[in-house]
Amino acid sequence: MPSKPCRSSDGGASHAAPEAGVSRGRGDWPDPADPPADPESVARLICLRLLTAAPRTRAQLADALKRRGVPADAAQTVLGRFTEVGLIDDRMFATSWVESRHYGRGLGRRALAAELDQRGVATDQIQAAVDALSTETERATALALVDRKIASTAGQPYPARVRRLVGLLARKGYPAGLAYSVVREALGRSGQSDPPAGLDDEFTDLDDPVADD
Predict the structure, then answer these.
(1) What is the extent of the structural domain holding 146?
(2) How is 142-206 classified by DSSP, letter by letter?
């Protein structure tokens, strides 16, 4: 039952101090610095609340526990238990992330791998997740992205259209060779099928940067 405000000596309302084990300004989260708080209980509560809000990797949860001051041994014990019972599953996280971000945001395998790496997913799990995305699917998604933007390049010189559309795909994490091939196909279908001499060489061996989004 919520605590009732107490009346101060001047007649104004004052609120009771938070109970021990609850950090001020953070709802009812226990403060790991409080002596009565059990570190493993605090770690379990923090992890459960974060996982309830959204899926998290083990590394993300470990970082959250460290920021909250949970001792390393308690954090590792809780993270290990959560992993054993399947509450933490980085492999499933990676698979779901690839599906969601590819179909939802149109990201290519390079960008997806970079995002998973930033979230602390192991290299072999990242590789398995992005490998599940077939070359045909990645190409089809890239072509759909170009088809949605190609009208905005109408009237521009062919090289300018190519660079703009290839740049779009590069920012989404698609390699230069695939991006150029897709853009040429899309431009060909729109009636521009003859690239200027030398344009092919410009995109053959590029190693494009991968943007965050």
Answers:
(1) 135-204
(2) HHHHHHHHGGGGTTS-HHHHHHHHHHHHHHTT--HHHHHHHHHHHHHHTT---PPTTHHHHHHS-
Q: What is the pLDDT of residues 94-125, one digit of tens each?
A: 999 999 999 999 999 999 999 999 999 999 99
Confidence class for position 29, pLDDT limits 50, 70, 90:
low
200/141 same-domain check: yes
Q: Which two tokens stand for residue 5?
A: 């405000």
Burial class of residue 10 (count of CB atoms within 10 Å of its CB; 0-12, 13-18, 19+): exposed
* Residue 159 to residue 70: CA distance in whole angstroms: 56
Q: In this structure, are 125 and 146 located in the same domain?
A: no
* Domains of the chain: total: 3
* Distant-in-sequence, close-in-space partners of 123: CB < 8 Å, separation ≥ 6: 117
Judged by DSSP in three states, 1 sits in: coil
In a domain, 211, yes or no: no
